[in-house]
Write a structure and sequence with these properties.
- The protein is mainly α and 155 residues long.
- Helix content is 77%, strand content 0%.
- It has six helices and no strands.
Length: 155
């Protein structure tokens, strides 16, 4: 079974090959490689001890309190101190509950349906934010996840 390094390296190479095939410059090739690198690790979010899952927890533990504070204080105009305390208490509970929503290893996140869905969401996000080359970046994310799935099938 391939590890994080194998998946990430294969993902990067896949994205870089896409950029080379399209005859992009070096910066665009690196960007496509980096996108595939990131997305090649995503399917292993369902493994409790994977680097992807650990990174997910770290990112969520930083972003969620900030986001919840923003919603409570700025958007809902709730008292500053209450918003701060609630976001500090509320965020770990949400992180804990989110762990139950992640499926078992090699189930949903290791399917081509998941691959299409995640790359579609990424492409849609890029399109809605007026990012140039959104289709190519979306294709790079798709190829990154596909490289993970193919490696897992081969080994």
């Amino acid at each position: 079974m391939p590890n994080f390094l194998a998946h990430s390296l294969t993902g990067f190479i896949t994205g870089a090959l896409l950029g080379s095939f399209l005859q992009y410059d070096l910066i665009q090739i690196v960007i496509l490689g980096f996108i595939s690198f990131i997305f090649s690790a995503i399917p292993d979010i369902d493994h409790p001890n994977s680097k992807t899952r650990k990174t997910y927890r770290k990112i969520l533990s930083v972003i969620l309190p900030i986001f919840s504070f923003f919603i409570f204080y700025i958007h809902l105009k709730i008292n500053f101190l209450f918003s701060l305390l609630f976001s500090i208490i509320f965020s770990p509970v949400l992180i804990f509950l989110s762990e139950f929503l992640i499926p078992k290893h090699r189930t949903l996140t290791h399917t081509f349906y998941f691959c299409f869905f995640v790359s579609f969401l990424f492409t849609l996000f890029l399109f809605l934010n007026n990012i140039n080359n959104y289709l190519i970046y979306g294709l790079s994310s798709f190829l990154g996840i596909c490289s993970h799935l193919i490696l897992d099938k081969l080994f």
